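Re: beginner question about structure tokens

> Can someone show what the tokenized structure looks like for a real chain? I only ever see the sequence side.

Sure, here's an example I had lying around. Input first:
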Amino acid sequence: MDEAYLEVYSLAELCLAPIETIVTLFTVKYCKSKINIKLILSKKKPLERAYAIDISNFVYEVMDAHKIPYHASSCELPIIIVNKTSCVAGLCAILRQIVKEVTAEHPKHSCRKLLGFKESCLTACSETSVWTKFCEVDLILTVKFLHADSEIESELPISMARFERHMSQPVRLHNLYKYTMSKKCSDESLILPEGLRLLEHTYAEGSHITLADIIIFVCTHILLTVFSSETTMNLLPLTAKWYKKMIEDHIIVECLKLLPLLKSQSITEFHYTLPQVANQSLYKSDPKRYKPRSRIYTRQEDIEDSLELFKALNIQTNLDLEPFGAELNLDWSSIPYDATPEGGSLPLTRLKKKQEQLENMCKPVMKLAKAGNIIVDFCSGSGHLGILVAYLLPYCTVILLENKEQSLNRAKERVKKLRLTNVKIYQCNLDYFKGHFDIGMSLHACGVATDLVIQQCIRLKAIFVCCPCCYGSLHDCHHLTYPRSNVFKKQMEPEKYIVLSHAADQTHDEQNVKTKQGYECMAIIDTDRKLEAEQFGYKVYLSKFVPNTCTPKNHILVGIPRKETVCTEYVS
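And the corresponding structure tokens:
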């Protein structure tokens, strides 16, 4: 039986808890899950708002924060521990795990619909999905740090306005088509005679309640009790209609008993206003998001202008002649089949290049690792790199950290076949991981993920071994901004920098006229990463894979903290 570790701030018949715990327990009750609940007494963060919840009908165990398993202490709560070697963290991921555990035992359980079409609801990480970020980050933070005097604020939170706008947009057409063709959507009123087009949202993602609705409902219920006025309901007519539809579900009404102190207040005449937001849905694929004025195009004149600006800074972008640890040998004939790329089910056309990539990544780790080290393979996918390192370094613990459940399922099978006892598996976004480790590595972590890995390593003064990818996907997010280093920040405008990052993805074959320029831009972006780490006392090696033809994204950054340097607190 899975174990859910949830944070609470006080315990009594009504306990005080953060919004993540409220949403989790609401989902547990909605699904009638029998998951083992472990409550961890914690200290409330400054300015954070706690909410009273009735836990009298739950079976739970109270645990001391200092005595919980390493899995639970190494990730942001809430977290679900599946077994001794595997865990799931992050609000969306653990809610999905709760549903999947229930449906594994009862395949026809009604809560299966919460996972959405093809069970894909909220599977994307918040760094890449606008929708997941809204549900897991934006809306949660709105409720989490709702000021105590919010009742007298004149403007409603922007998250409420964004959801109202979302509900005014058409449902994603491909979802409606799939629902209809699979005969899962029987409501003929949803389809116009001239074609497939949803008149309006019934629920947040379409015609069925999903986990997104559960998260949004709990948060909206709290917000509507705080901002209780006639003007609120008038400003949010679609949200009000959706909310009314939600509470027509008798299970939702039963679950609301968890929040006894959040009963609807009498409607007042306080006059709120609605903040202005873009006229678009919360889906990244909404065409309204892609307006020519706001897009970054890699126009040659813009690239040349940015390159000229960079050259004026007199920053050297020289790469080392050979990768760190290149002198080591790796005997592939001694590696078991299931630890090789072929054992990881890669197609034959990719085996040789993947083997060369893994060899370049393994050598610096083998050279730097010490007995007892904890090594994290960030964005591990199906474990090609981490499993190989775990086999080569049996005296170290290797954590495979990945947010895609299917990829980790393949990794689990390989670990089982190899009988590796030094591998732990974490299904979560890398920013939820806060445990101690000694070496962090990532092979082709997309876009901002590479910088999040380096940020995690700098935070703990851990060694990093990173091969970046998808330079064109770099963008400011709630975790970090660009450029990264102080040198670049002081002298280069973010817009010019992002133009170079887009150009860095133009590393095609040798005959392409853009390739040389693409590698020049790659060197600039990775030099920025190198300089950032050097600010925090790192010795950084920047070089290319050998052979450099094994992948177009062939840079490798190896950062080693200098022993004599005391790390100041990391600030992104």
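Each token stands for a local structural state, so reading them left to right follows the chain. The first strand starts at residue 3 and ends at 8.
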